[in-house]
Amino acid sequence: MSIKENYQKIREQIPDNVTIVLASKMRTPEEIEEVIEVGATDIGENYVQEAENMHDALSEKARRVRWHMIGYLQKNKINKAVEIFDVIQTVDSLKTAVAIDKRVERAGKKISVLVEINIGSEMTKAGVKPEYEVIENLVGEISKLEYLRLEGLMTMGPRFGNPEDSRPYFKKTKNIFGRIKGLSLPGVKMETLSMGMSNSYKVAVEEGSNMVRLGTVVFGERKGGIKK
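Above: the chain sequence. Below: its structure as tokens.
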């Protein structure tokens, strides 16, 4: 099937309340344009420079979608990031949150953020330790920042050949999400639970995810991307 058909099929299969963030890493502007034309609303990028290049290449079409930072955000890239992104999904420390808040204030805007949880405690992945007290404390501190809108949690989760093996990790993340939401902290929405990718999104949705990040299941294997 074509990219268009892949996207439309998945969009029809999952609930309307689940946001699809299409990961544009190593994709061409033409591929991203194709999904925007058939209704894609959210695009995710792993790197600030690639996001800037894609944004420029898409021109006015870039303004038709929300842009999500879904990769690790380096401190020296925050200034540029706040110009491009509407949502930063990978906040994993108060230090990072404060740095973003200061840059956003200078830019004269507000930005949505998610707290990233390293639910599998993997050494090779970023994210907050999957300990409720640690996460609650971080969320409480972020809630005091003036220019950030904390809207939920995000997790990558361990990658398995069998998506079913991801289920316990998604359950645990959903449990933490529910407990944090129950605190009803001022300035914290807790409306977004971003978990599930191309190999695991079906299980993630069953476990309560309302935002999935999809790449190869829509676009196929990576072929190139924007030449710099």
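The two ends are 29 Å apart (CA to CA).
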